[in-house]
Write a structure and sequence with these properties.
The chain is an alpha+beta fold and 150 residues long. It is built from 4 helices and 6 strands. Bound molecules: zinc ion (ZN).
Length: 150
């Protein structure tokens, strides 16, 4: 508990200057502690605001994509929705990276042994076998979503 200003004034009125001085010292110390605490809290708020902003940004970014099955089999990727492409070319995003709130565009590669068309992630090294020997250019999510709903 910090000494009260009113009590210090009372002490001074009574002529208890030493006791008053002690309380003033306590008050100063308390003020410094509060200042420090205030600074730390401001830092914490700044960090949390930055995190919140990143989360909000990611949820906007995330909503531009849909999980699709563009090929035979169960292989899934995130595809850009044409409705939110804003002129950006169609592309596929690594589902593994996507779960970790990062976007990595998959790179088409040919499997050297059997010639299967793979989609590789340069970031997490995930490799998705499309089950095809060749695949065309990436397409927007809507195309695959329509197919799935038929
Ligand atoms: Zn990845």
């Amino acid at each position: 508990m910090l000494p009260k200003y009113k009590d210090i004034v009372e002490l001074l009125k009574k002529g208890s200057t030493i006791e008053a001085q002690e309380q003033i010292m306590d008050l100063r110390e308390g003020a410094l502690e509060l200042q420090e605490e205030n600074y730390e809290l401001k830092e914490k708020i700044r960090d949390l605001e930055a995190k919140l902003k990143a989360t909000e940004d990611w949820s906007i970014e995330k909503s531009r994509y849909a999980l699709v099955n563009p090929w035979r089999g169960a292989a899934q990727v995130y595809a850009l929705k044409e409705s939110s492409s804003d002129g950006e070319q169609a592309h596929f995003i690594c589902p593994n990276c996507f779960q970790n709130t990062t976007k990595t565009i998959l790179v088409p590669v040919r499997e050297p042994k059997n010639g299967d068309a793979l989609m590789n992630c340069p970031a997490c090294k995930a490799s998705i076998n499309t089950g095809y020997s060749g695949i065309g250019a990436a397409e927007y999510a809507e195309k695959f979503l329509e197919k799935a709903n038929k």
